[in-house]
# Entry
Amino acid sequence: MAVYLDHAATSPIRPEVLLRYTADLALVGNPSSVHGFGQRARMVVEDAREKLAATIGCHRSEVIFTSGGTEADNLAIKGLYWSRFKADNRRRIIISTAAEHHAVLDALEWLESHGPEDHRAELHLLELDANGNFDLSELENFLTERADEVALISLMWANNETGVVSPIAKVCQIAREHGVPVHSDAVAAFGHVPVHFAGSGLSLLTITAHKIGGPVGVGALIVSRDIELVPVSHGGGHERKLRSGTLNAAGAGAFALAASEVRATLTERAERDAALKATLLAAVKEIVPTAQITAENAETLPSTVHIRFTDCPGDSLLVLLDLKGIAVSTGSACQAGVINASHVMLAMGRDENAASECIRVSFGYNTTEGDIEEFLAALPAAYAGARKAGEAR
Amino acid sequence: MKVLAAMSGGVDSAVAAARAVEAGHEVVGVHLALSRNAGTLRTGSRGCCTIEDSMDAQRACNVLGIPYYVWDFSDRFKEQVVDDFIAEYQAGRTPNPCMRCNERIKFAALLEKALAMGFDAVCTGHYASLLTDDAGNLELHRSNEMAKDQSYVLGVLTAEQLSHSMFPLGKEASKADVRAEADRRGLAVANKPDSYDICFIPEGDTQDWITEKVGGKVPGQIIDVDGNVLGKHEGSFGYTVGQRKGLRIGKPAPDGNPRYVLSISPKTNTVVVGPQAALAVSELAGTRFSWCGVAPSQVNEFFDIGVQVRAHGEEVAAQAAVIGGELVIRVKEPIIGVAPGQTAVLYVGSRVLGQTTIDRTVSAVAGDLEALAENIAAGA
# Structure
């Protein structure tokens, strides 16, 4: 009777990945050691690197394993900013949007507020419309005027709250004409829409295992061969000296296996998710006619549904659904358990009130029609209760 | 019953929740986020508003096997407790923020939200007992553990609020028992220190905190009851009636006895000081009163009660009556340490009868000190 519809937060580990992962945890040897034990562990890592490279569309040496998405984003943004600034100290502008994941946003804000005044980054955040889309011509005009001062562009492939998909290939095309490298956080997109590194034109790409049925604690930054990064953490010089720290062989193996599984099942899952999403949205509109589907007319992930229920606090709705065993999310960041108004919705022009009246329902590889039915069955009572709680505010 | 357990992160609320679970209720733990900028770690004897406290509450819920959520009441807390606290100080009164928090947050905002979401009652770790009289009406009584009795701060509750309240620690608990029980139940907060201070004020400097909140210093005069100027202060809002320390007058009274704040006049920004004897009060009154449970049948003529004017104060014999919309309390023997803004809680035996916020006091010796301060300021 427990229904898990919060795969965008983390997705359950796939059974075959769990088997592989637990078996590899028993491996003896540091992948960097010279002896036979080390070589066998290294083989697991390098098999994984090759397999992941094939899945994501890059060269094996472009895969830098990290501890997850946050570390990869920090390495991408700080590493590229410092390297681009070092090569030419006019390059201090970073182009992004206010709807990025906090792993990106907070790294940007850190670069904007730390270090000597003339070393600090200057943020240029592209405006978002009500559907979460930015204007490509605004980007193009800005680059035409000031490309010499731009260190990098960082734009997520798909938004983790709303599921809105960015036109990454077009961004990269424009950026290339102006010689500006682009990073994309594809943590939310990977496994739900086709993500191909070489085909995208990106210089840097972030992915992580636990959103696609792999374990928590392993991710990767794909770093194009022609890109120089300044390392963020220092140590034994692992991963092309970009990411020191003992390699996580079992994690890498499990990540690569999960990645190849999602690649193999992508088309079929996308079709199934689109159908589940259509069913869900139609039923929600019937139950709550005033419900507003976020970015309904934009391109969104088939696996993510983001809805605003007017006059119905999202946190109360979440609690009432949870007490019925149904796990969804408000999508927004939570600090010490307090759910904040969604910064993504604020960036899309919603007011504080609207930004706190949303929930996100997200599907994963093992989501079934039955899960959707149970969610819909619990929704009317939870909605009514949360509305009342909203009036009591 | 579906019970919402308010979890501060302390040992009392954890054990109260545990007892509610054991009594067979369907319990959900909720921690109230009351500060917009919660500190990371607990410091000193403040005990409810840091992230560490919230983690303690969550851990207790995990151990009890009940769901746990954090509800954000920080906006309402700021408006109705913190801002009220500052406004009361500015008006020369001495507020009790814990009382306001119970009145406006825990048994109002939280209770309303809980009822809206389908809960039947709110459970807290207060030391007080709920009993039923012969007619089936709920009565709030002092805890058997007098040293920890918290019925005073619950005096603001109405019959309706009592009917949705649960105080599992009230009847038999002593603090030592509660700690031992927490330990037995595997609750890590068993040895967490008690909290005493006002949760939203950094340790020990109410005066500096208020000065900052009201936007800086406003110099004024400190005078005695004869109108002699004894010194200067940096804002009358920084003082409370009965205060002895921090007056910075420099010289003692002619008789060598310490001087106390007798009255504060925000209008003239004047602080009146005098001997302790002048603090004696014979009558207190307020228009903001309420009955805790069933109201007494005859309130227009003076009837015998006990009255307590501070959370950890003594109860003294008095008489009370409602006269012209004001609850008037006449104490049998003059009392000291009572100031406008404080709450007077009325008792009959161990039962809490009601309360009023004190608007005015009548000195047992001097006349109207506020009028005196105004006259002196006008003359000068």
About this structure: The two ends of chain B are 65 Å apart (CA to CA). Chain B has a mean pLDDT of 88.
